[in-house]
Amino acid sequence: MGDAVRVQGLTKSYGELNAVGGIDFSVPPGRVFAFLGPNGAGKTTTVEILEGLRKRTKGEVEVLGLDPWTQGRALHHRIGVIPQEFRFFDKITPAESVQYYARLFEKPADVEALLARVELSDKANARFDTLSGGQKQKLGLALALVNDPEVCFLDEPTTGLDPHARRAIWEVIRMLKADHRTVFLTTHYLEEAQLLADQVAIIHQGRIIASGPPDAIIRQYGRRERLVVQGSSALAEKLRASLDLPVRAQDGRIEIAFREKADIFRVLDAIEKSGLPWSGFATQSDTLEDVFVSLVGKMDEGVLKPAGVA
Ligand SMILES: Nc1ncnc2c1ncn2[C@@H]1O[C@H](COP(=O)(O)OP(=O)(O)OP(=O)(O)O)[C@@H](O)[C@H]1O
Ligand SMILES: [Mg+2]
Fold first, then answer.
1. pLDDT tens, 97-118?
2. Closest residue by CA, ligand 1 atom 3
3. Distance from the alpha carbon of residue 87 to the mean position of ligand 1, in angstroms
4. Residue 300 and residue 37: Cα distance in Å, rounded?
5. Which residue has a Cα nearest atom 29 of ligand 1?
6. What's the mean pLDDT in 301-310?
7. Which of 19, 51, 74, 265 is the 20 to 30 Å CA partner of 57?
8. What is the CATH number of domain 224-284?
9. Rounded CA gap, 12 and 15, in Å?
10. 55 lines ligand 1 (CB under 6 A)
């Protein structure tokens, strides 16, 4: 089977502004793809082009083998969409909205099961304008699932949700993946992308600056794994003198970048031999968020160019 989503040389200009400046990526079926980037990077523009809601300026785009702009009608029956900042008719309840969508798509819907899946059963009969921000987001997700979609486009589905509600949405995304559906996710919560995504792409000012599985991106752009120990600057000095490893110290926290596992024992030995007090020995690796902040920061400073990165 071909890719669920395929994008080649996609460009979108709004007048003078190149909001998307020639990007390429593909998403195989059944995968979770996280599209990450700072505000205004071009995520929603790209997502809405894939959904057939905006017309591209240039490039090739296919979703489930269809052109979203010219074959939107066929495509809309096979995809689910949560727009960024989902809104609906004020006086309609979640139960009615699900029924309405089900009729629209001519699909039978188990209203109760769908609302239970997004943890919204208790508000099944409350008017939309009385729902909290998070509850509205949950309804958006329920509606995106009504037509049993092969590909779900979720544009910031967890923004504004409380930590428990976010985890409920993560569970839905995991279920979609277990069902072999494709999920195209945008989010500003990097830990969410690291947890859920098989593949991520980081977009900055309309250009993709890094892409691949989260682990590979962290390995490629992250700093070396570190040992962290709480101790005085005197301890840091002793470690600097006795080890051939970089030692950084600030606010009673000492970081030692190590090369191989055996270094850990040498560090512990040096700490013990110093005779100075210490506590809280642990190892620490960069997260996707650390890498994202560093990459985007370097791009903003002009230290990195899009062409120089994968
Ligand atoms: N309809 C429009 N007309 C003109 N400019 C637009 C339009 N829509 C988006 N833009 C501009 O295109 C750029 C990309 O916007 P987009 O909404 O795709 O960003 P985003 O990555 O989704 O950001 P966010 O994380 O804030 O949602 C921004 O500079 C934005 O101001
Ligand atoms: Mg957006």
1. 999 999 988 888 899 999 998 8
2. 14
3. 18
4. 12
5. 40
6. 63
7. 74
8. 3.30.70.3400
9. 9
10. no
